[in-house]
Design brief:
- The complex is a heterotrimer of chains A (258), B (308) and C (251).
- Chain A is an all-alpha fold and 258 residues long.
- Chain A has one domain.
- Chain A has eleven helices and no strands.
- Chain B is an all-alpha fold.
- Helix content of chain B is 67%, strand content 0%.
- The longest helix of chain B is centred in the N-terminal third of the chain and has 27 residues.
- With 251 residues, chain C is an alpha/beta fold.
- Chain C has eight helices and ten strands.
- The chains are: A mainly alpha (258), B mainly alpha (308), C alpha/beta (251).
- Chains in contact: A-B, A-C.
- Chains A and B meet through helix 8, helix 10 and helix 11 of A and helix 6 and helix 7 of B.
């Protein structure tokens, strides 16, 4: 575990020494504050549109950061050849994958905490109350979502040589699943066989990422998702993360590194 | 001072001169407001698409996020402003409410376990912004929609309805309606809503009458060639379940005018508007009752002198 | 005496993915062993298979057939690398880390306790003379400084076997001298060093035994003194003779 944590620490250090996070955070802050400064019919209690915009920016920033960071981890190790002194130590390839995953995931989590704190502050300034539990639940589910995404991108990074192509393909796949995944069953029912079975199979195979996006519930002050449901969704996300990490290891374990 | 500095100063002067002369020319060419022109230049007709998106977004907020996606084809929920406004009018009654509930039941039974489980993570029950002041949340999207497409009239009427009726912001509602009127000088819908504002909020009957009469004239003037035939066709084959918005606003204007005149004691004028109303109303028997009452009042001698 | 490094019938083929291309034989039937306390020079012209052999020893490349072990443990097991230090030919380190952070990271990988880590870092930074730059990111270092950081990281776990791939390549004469001094010091401390180099004079000075590889096959192996006596020539002449180099007369 020491090795995995040491590797994760390097990834976190890399993220906070790069400018990506700061740029995205400042952009989010600027856009949100700009929207907040607009006087809409002289009503200073309007808050939902701010929550909506801020959450959208958080989701975009977190996705860009997670995909960007995860996509370059293994290719950069190979391209900069830092993998050689690393694997010359008692470090297995499985540990490299686990460390990279953990680093990206923890770094994304830290970034999310900063983003959600900002969201909480903005909303509290208007609503004069803290909806702590729904924010925590939204943060947790988004973090689980990012775990699946990071694992998926790491898997892509051992298949596609260039980080840019991996990042692009991953983002397209993630967005497609996120927005269309839940409707595939409706589409399948409108098709004739064998398309119906094919689409339904895809529907059951893909990770249903839309579950982790509870922005609607946060924006419209809907009740919390029950703890059991949240736990089950976490297990579902963990299972897919495990599947992708295992697939990454299968592809990476025998890959020549010269 | 070295040569590059002179060149730089010369170029800056040239730029400034050009900018000032171009600004004047642009000002003379431009017809709309600067921001309107800028949005038009940047987005072109695409801004209407965005405006529509934001208008729908307001409706999504109105339903607290419970809204059909493009995949829920059975749902007929959104579409127009009437839906967002009339849902809260008592006149629509239980029938409209029931129809709306039926239309918004687009989710149906879960198709599989993923569908069933997924419903915990988004707004899956139908509700409206009912709590006091909650309606304010739809306003930013309506404001944005109006900025992007100033010709979209329902944006002004819906926003004004909520501002004056539920949020107590009568001045803001009037200002917004006047803004809409400047962008759409022939709009009888905005004039009607402005009349409602004067009647219900300012209790200024005379200005309300002026505005509604102007609205009625504008309604008659608009598409003057085809209007009589449209009206005639409607009078001949009206269908209770499908009131055309255009006829609907006409109906509203004359109804309000009839009520106003009756309240002010000008029963003849009220009768005139009721007679117009009965021809187009989807419920003529109810209007006929009102006409009979008015005729009865006109037949009996007046108790006191009417004030206008 | 226990063999520290043992290679038996090692064969490495690289598959060419292009259609119709044959496989490339990088190492063919290599047998080699290194005893504790030895400084072993691994020589050969470019493309002889030295780096491939080292890559197999470090687990970067899998052998097509044959076996390789370190301290009696198969090189495919990560634990086999617990007691080795490796210095790559060029500097491949996380450039956003400082020298101190890099050494701390590798110490953690080896599971060295924190107190010991700090002590070890101080010693190594002093050894490679990087004290003034220890808190600066590696990207700001000169090539020589980066090579010295590399040497420090190779020594962080106080290894029993050091694998050095062209440790003096690209260094100025002073840098080379320093590296040579460090190898000498390690030898005096009883460490085993396995290194490849093109600097035959250097090899002659510090190595106990050498092996010369050519076209993937081991041509010569033995003690430096024995070879020089046997061929009646210095190491450079022996090397050129073995690889079949014919000098061209320059008029």
């Amino acid at each position: 575990m020491n090795t995995i944590f040491a590797l994760a620490q390097v990834v976190i250090k890399e993220l906070y020494r790069r400018k990506d996070f700061y740029v995205l955070f400042i952009l989010t802050v600027l856009i949100t504050l700009l929207m907040a400064s607009a006087s809409i019919f002289h009503d200073d209690k309007i808050v939902r549109y701010l929550k909506d915009i801020c959450l959208l920016l958080i989701w975009i920033s977190a996705l860009v950061m997670a995909v960007g960071t995860a996509a370059r981890q293994i290719p950069a190790e190979r391209e900069n050849r830092t993998i050689f002194p690393l694997l010359a130590k008692p470090v297995s390839r499985a540990q490299v994958i686990a460390g990279k995953f953990l680093g990206c995931w923890l770094a994304s989590g830290m970034a999310l905490v900063v983003f959600y704190l900002f969201l909480g502050l903005v909303c509290a300034s208007r609503e004069h109350e803290w909806h702590v539990f729904i924010y925590l639940q939204a943060l947790w589910l988004q973090w689980v979502f990012l775990a699946v995404i990071i694992a998926l991108v790491l898997f892509g990074s051992v298949i596609f040589a260039a980080p840019s192509s991996n990042a692009t393909i991953s983002i397209v796949v993630v967005i497609s699943i996120w927005f269309l995944g839940s409707h595939l069953n409706t589409v399948a029912l409108q098709q004739a066989e064998p398309m119906r079975s094919i689409i339904y199979t895809i529907y059951f195979l893909i990770p249903h990422l839309e579950w982790y996006d509870i922005r609607d519930l946060v924006v419209h002050n809907r009740p919390l998702v029950s703890g059991t449901i949240c736990g089950l969704a976490t297990l579902y996300g963990a299972a897919y993360t495990g599947v992708f990490l295992f697939a990454t290891w299968l592809c990476f374990r025998r890959k020549p590194l010269n | 001072m070295p040569a590059p500095c002179y060149i730089l100063a010369l170029l800056l002067t040239l730029c400034f001169t050009l900018a000032t002369s171009l600004q004047l020319r642009m000002h003379s060419i431009s017809t709309g407001t600067p921001s309107d022109d800028m949005l038009k230049a940047v987005l072109g007709d695409g801004r209407r698409m965005f405006a529509n998106h934001y208008f729908v977004k307001a409706d999504v907020y109105f339903h607290s996020g419970y809204y059909p996606s493009i995949f829920e084809q059975g749902a007929k929920a959104p579409a127009n402003a009437r839906h967002m406004v009339e849902e809260h009018h008592d006149e629509g009654g239980d029938h409209d409410e029931h129809e709306h509930e039926k239309a918004m039941d687009f989710l149906g039974q879960p198709k599989d376990w993923i569908d069933r489980f997924g419903r915990h993570f988004y707004s899956s029950t139908h509700s409206h912004l009912d709590k006091p002041g909650e309606a304010r949340e739809i306003l930013p999207w309506l404001r944005l929609s109006a900025d992007l497409d100033p010709q979209r009239i329902e944006t002004y009427t819906v926003a004004a309805y909520w501002l004056r009726g539920h949020l107590g912001k009568v001045d803001e509602a009037e200002q917004f309606l006047r803004e809409g009127l400047r962008a759409n000088p022939t709009s009888y819908e905005i004039l009607f809503e402005l009349g409602m504002l004067y009647s219900e909020n300012h209790h200024d009957s005379s200005r309300a009458r002026n505005l509604w009469e102007l609205a009625l004239r504008r309604w008659q003037d608009q598409d003057a060639v085809n209007r009589p035939s449209v009206l005639q066709r409607w009078e001949e084959s009206k269908d209770v379940g499908d009131i055309q918005p255009d006829i609907n606003i006409y109906l509203k204007i004359i109804t309000q005018l009839a009520l106003l005149e009756e309240g002010q004691g000008d029963l003849r004028q009220a009768l005139h508007y009721r007679e117009l109303e009965v021809k187009v109303s989807p419920l003529p028997e109810l209007v006929q009752v009102e006409i009979d009452k008015l005729k009865q009042k006109l037949a009996s001698p007046p108790i006191s002198a009417p004030t206008k | 005496m226990n063999t520290i490094l043992d290679i038996k019938d090692l064969r490495v083929e690289y598959r060419n993915r292009a259609i119709g291309q044959t496989t490339k034989l990088a190492v063919n039937g290599l047998n080699l062993s290194v005893q504790p306390g030895e400084v072993f020079g691994f020589l050969g012209p470019n493309g002889a298979g030295k780096t491939t052999t080292m890559n197999v020893l470090l687990g970067f490349v899998n052998a097509t057939s044959g076996s390789a072990s370190l301290f009696g443990v198969d090189v495919r097991e990560p634990i086999a690398r617990q007691r080795i230090g490796y210095l790559p030919e060029l500097t491949y380190y996380y450039k956003f880390l400082t020298a101190e952070e890099l050494l701390r990271f590798y110490a953690k990988v080896f599971g060295i306790p924190r107190a010991e880590t700090e002590k070890r870092i101080d010693e190594l930074i002093k050894l490679v003379e990087l004290e003034p730059a220890r808190k600066r990111p590696i990207k700001s270092y000169s090539k020589g400084m980066q090579q010295r950081v590399g040497l420090a990281q190779a020594l962080i776990n106080n290894p029993d076997l050091l694998i050095l791939d062209e440790p003096t390549s690209g260094l100025d004469p002073i840098g080379r001298m320093k590296v040579r001094e460090i190898i000498q010091r390690l030898k005096n401390d009883g460490k085993t060093v396995f290194f490849s180099s093109h600097e035959l004079g250097e090899v002659e000075t510090v190595c106990d035994r050498v092996a010369i590889l050519h076209q993937g096959e081991l041509k010569v192996e033995g003690r430096v003194d024995d070879l020089m006596q046997k061929y009646k020539a210095n190491l450079e002449q022996i090397f050129l003779r073995i690889i079949g180099y014919q000098p061209v007369a320059v008029s």
